[in-house]
Amino acid sequence: MSRGSGPELRAGPPPLGAPPGEQGPVSARSPLPALLGRFSRGRLALVVGLGLTALVLAIAAATVFGGVPLAWRQALSGAGPDAAILWDLRLPRVLLAALVGAGLCGAGAALQGLLANPLADPFVLGVSGGAAVGVTAAVLAVDLLGFRGGSLPPQIAFGFAGALLAAFAVRSLGSRGGRLVGAAALLAGAVLNAAAGALVLLAQLALSPDRAQQILWWLAGSLGYPAPATLALAAAGVLAGGAGLVLLAGRIRLLSLGEDEAAQLGVDVKGTVRWTLAACALAVASAVAVSGLIGFVGLLVPHLLRLRIGPDQRLLVPASILGGAAFLVLADAAGRLAFLPLGVEPPVGALTALLGGPLFLVLLRRGLREET
Amino acid sequence: MIAPGEAGAPSSGLSPAGGEGSPDLLEVSGVSFRHGDRTVLAELSFRLCAGERVGLLGPNGAGKTTLLRLLAGLREPAAGRVVFGGRPLSGRSVAERAREIALVPQEAPLDRSITAAELVLTGLAPIAGSWSDGGARGRERAREALAEVGILPLAGRQLHTLSGGELRRALIARALVRGPKLLLMDEPLAGLDLGAQGKLLSIARDAARRGAAVLFALHDVNLALRELPRAILLVSGRIVADGSPAEVLDLARVEQAFGPARADAGGSAFFPRVEG
Q1: Taking the alpha carbons of B2, B8, B13, B17 in that order, is the dihedral positive or negative?
Q2: What are the CA-CA distances from residue B80 to residues A36, A93, A256, B31, B36 (Å)?
Q3: Which of A72, B127, B216, B254 is the most buried (most CB within 10 A)?
Q4: What is the mean pLDDT of chain A?
Q5: Is residue A14 part of a domain?
Q6: Contact, B275 vs B59, CB < 8 A?
Q7: Is the ipTM of this complex over 0.90?
Q8: Rounded distance, CA B225 to CA B57, Å?
Q9: Among A348, A283, A288, A359, residue whose Cα is nearest residue A321
Q10: Which 14-73 residues of chain A touch chain B by CB within 8 A?
């Protein structure tokens, strides 16, 4: 491993994560909070406050701007077509985007810490793919066996099982001698993804043509106009998974230093890994069941946030959950508005892949340069 | 204030005063470790008292790093037992062990985008909890630890911008910050210049004076000879000698252990560190 051997005691290039004012030469008596670490309760409150504000603003903006201008008095009164657009279409859609973004980005930030690799993302690692296979299996079961009682609960349950399997498969395939090797985990994820895609394609052969069409559209990563029950279920899964990740964030932070490091700092490594993967799988499966494969958001948002607030998972996980929600709300709204003249809605997964894919390549390139 | 951590509450009130009953802080008896079918450590037995400083000497591949990892609870011995503070190490939870045993590893942490101060603050996690920011007192202790190893001015620098020696000092500060009872250091002097080596040895002396047992893995025998009251010579996973450095390092034994070329390569000799 080559260590950058820059000038000895002079301040190098400003550290990426440090906000302005916390870098450069530090005098021996500079104030403690600025000097000692970027995490504090105050900073956490600030990050959460800003994240919530951003989310509320994004939701408001995405609700106000849409295909048709709303007559707000009518819409808010609860009757008439404008009210139907607002309450049955636009708001559920926006809230769904927020939930999916929160689940995928929270899981992305946690997985990056867990694997100590900035390239980790539920989509890249095949966790989303595993969930998609599970969801498709549930669709098959419901269609072919005539399962009654709603299709979303089994989809989330099967999706969770699929995501969990994929997550543990990546972990065991991607580690050598009990230690995770970032590149191996990413390769294992790529293979899992390909296998998952193939399984889903095979499965849809068994379905009726219009059902198969639905599956393809879902697979591309599209947000629909969910019913309240759908929204509530997805919310339960994402919030439970997200809350678990926030609770684990302190330990994930120590794990990002390495497994032996974490163990000598008192972290139960196996338990933490297991619970983190389970929480990620739950959040991801809930998102995938309602929106298909939306790739690279879980990479994009935590990465951008890390540039601002640093690598500490205790700030990064909550920030990614809130920031990811706001980001996907805006990305979906932008996509809807941009394609308005054509009269179609692009799957938001296509947009996030267009934005996040290049970032992945840039990070990969940077990582390769550091390793050689 | 340092709050009791969420990572497992102290399960007994036994620990604070230390094992008053037995004078030995650490008792290793018949400990073996295997990696696959290769025996890395074979039936090691020794004792460490509180306040003792001991050099663990041996050539590369002798098993020094493995022994330290085992004592830190990162590996389980295949046979034998380790008693720490009057109770078997294997009976303690990971969190409980971490409160009293600190290891200075050879390798850099995987995530090197954190700052030196943040690294040192992670050393408080075993006593303050993984979600704690250390509080005012913890920050003060981190500051003192950074000052003690002489890198306070570098506190805000990211690890990947530090030199090897600076990073090592940050790792030592991280181990010191929670005031461990057993301080395990894996080649702590490698990459340090002579002045820094002397400084580090005096830090270890201070830690021992405060009651910690300090075990150094070293390949530099001259230094051990000058500075440490006791040395253990480990060769191919076995303890060959245990006593004052002068006894342990009589020429015949050293030549047997290190080979003649290496015995006199003292000073700040820097052998490639490749042991497992």
Answers
A1: negative
A2: 42, 62, 32, 4, 18
A3: B216
A4: 84
A5: no
A6: no
A7: no
A8: 11
A9: A283
A10: 15-18, 22-23, 25-26, 28, 32-41
Residue A1 counted as domain residue: no
CB within 8 Å: A8 and B74: no
Which CATH number does the domain housing residue A128 bear? 1.10.3470.10
Q: Mean pLDDT, to the nearest integer, of A128-143? A: 90
Let me know if domain B24-263 sits in CATH 3.40.50.300.
yes
In contact, A287 and A104? CB cutoff 8 Å = yes
What residue ranges in A198-263 does DSSP mark as E strands?
A: none
Other beta carbons within 10 angstroms of residue B38's beta carbon come to: 9
The helix (run of H) or strand (run of E) holding residue B42 is strand B38-49
Residue pLDDT, tens place only, A109-133 = 999 998 888 888 899 899 999 999 9
Q: Judging by DSSP bridges, how do beta strands B38-49 and B24-35 pair with one another?
A: antiparallel
> Between A12, A38, A250, which is nearest B130 by CB?
A250
In this predicted model, which residue has the larger pLDDT, A184 or B229?
B229
Query: A278, A244 in Cβ contact below 8 A?
Result: yes
- Which residue of chain A comes nearest to B143, CA vs CA? A36
Q: Give A159-174 pLDDT, tens digit per residue.
A: 999 999 999 998 888 7
Given a cut of 80, is residue A12 above it in pLDDT? no
Residue partners of A220: CB distance under 8 A and separation at least 6: A292, A293, A347, A349, A350
Centre a 10 Å sphere on the Cβ of residue A104 and count the other Cβ atoms it contains: 38
pLDDT-based confidence at B70, cuts 50/70/90? Answer: very high
Q: Give B115's DSSP letter.
A: B
Confidence grade of residue B265 (pLDDT, cut at 50, 70, 90): very low
- Residues of chain A positioned with their CB less than 8 A from the CB of B121: 36-37, 39
The DSSP line for A156-208 is HHHHHHHHHHHHHHHHHHTEETTEE-HHHHHHHHHHHHHHHHHHHHHHHHTS-
Say how far apart CA B244 and CA B225 lie, in whole Å.
Answer: 8
Note the pLDDT of residue B267. 37
Domain that holds residue A297: 74-371
**How many whole angstroms from its chain centre is CA A356?**
12
Q: Is A230 contained in some domain?
A: yes
Residues 97-126 of A with CB under 8 A from B: 116
Amino acid at residue number A131? A
Tally of domains within chain A? 1
Q: Residue A273 falls within a domain, yes or no?
A: yes
The encoded tokens of residue A215 equal 């599956």
Q: Which pLDDT score is estimated for B47?
A: 94
With cut-offs at 50, 70 and 90, classify the pLDDT of residue B143. very high
Residue A248, CB-side half-sphere exposure with 13 Å CA sphere = 30
Q: Comparing C-alpha atoms, which of A121, A169, A132, A178 is closest to residue A297?
A: A121
Q: How far is A64 from chain B (nearest CA, A)?
A: 39
In which band, very low, low, confident or very high, does the pLDDT at A29 lie, cut at 50, 70 and 90?
very low
